[in-house]
Amino acid sequence: MDIIDLEKKWNSYIEETVNTNFKHTLDEVVRQMFKNFVKVGNNECKRILSLGIGAGNIEREYLLNGWYVTGVDIADKACDAILHNIENDVKNRVIERYEFIWSAFEEVKLSGYYNYVIAFNSLPYSFKEDLPNIISNVNNHVLPGSVFALTFFGDTHDFVKKTVCYGVSEEEIPLLFTGWEIKHINRVIETINIPYVTMRKKKKRYNPVVWDSIDVIAVKIWR
After folding, report:
1. Closest alpha carbon to 151 in 26, 60, 20, 3
2. What CA–CA distance (Å, rounded) separates 94 from 88?
3. pLDDT for 219 beyond 70
4. What domains sit in the chain, N to C, each tagged with a CATH number?
């Protein structure tokens, strides 16, 4: 699949998922961490990098709470999706804190330092051989105490079996995060129904999919 086909695929996905919240446990864990962090009132820690920002439903919350958000995605629709349902008077205040980088994860050029890096259900759609370089690039743009929250797919995931994505084992994960302390690993295997729209009748149908996800939260401890 070439770059144009990939962009069309993810543009379509974004159109279908604006203002939806895909179910996985990491969402709630990071939201709780975010709430606790805001209560501390540390105004210096306000930068978030999102690898695979998609429709920006989670990142939108950070923008509305005063954070600077950098979103990376191969789909150009992701540039505007996060702002789609923000009221105009608020949009004028947040747009200066939002940066979009149209790029593949393995090629993205970053600048400065981030306090949170999130990659929810996105990295497995790249290439596994690029994963060490992606994490190495993140390493160059975080400081001790920064948080990396992400989702991997396990080998029983239907998309992994169909070679749509790559899978990782729980044993591989610590080896990828040199200089990080793994704070949270949670693997959930369940069957979920993913909606799709039939082209002929334009009706929404559902496909049952075995969803094998491994949620990870790591904290940077040294450079």
Report:
1. 26
2. 10
3. yes
4. 3-220 (3.40.50.150)
pLDDT in tens, 154-211: 999 999 999 999 999 999 999 999 999 998 888 989 898 877 655 555 666 778 889 9
Within the chain, strands assigned E span 47-51, 68-73, 98-102, 114-119, 142-153, 180-197, 204-220
Cα distances (angstroms) measured from residue 197 to each of 8, 42, 63, 189: 16, 45, 31, 25
Q: Is 151:165 a contact under the CB 8 Å cutoff? A: no
pLDDT tens for each residue of 5-60: 544 544 454 344 444 444 455 555 566 555 555 443 444 558 999 999 888 878 88
Q: What gap in Å lies between CA 183 and CA 80, rounded to an integer?
A: 33
DSSP 122: -
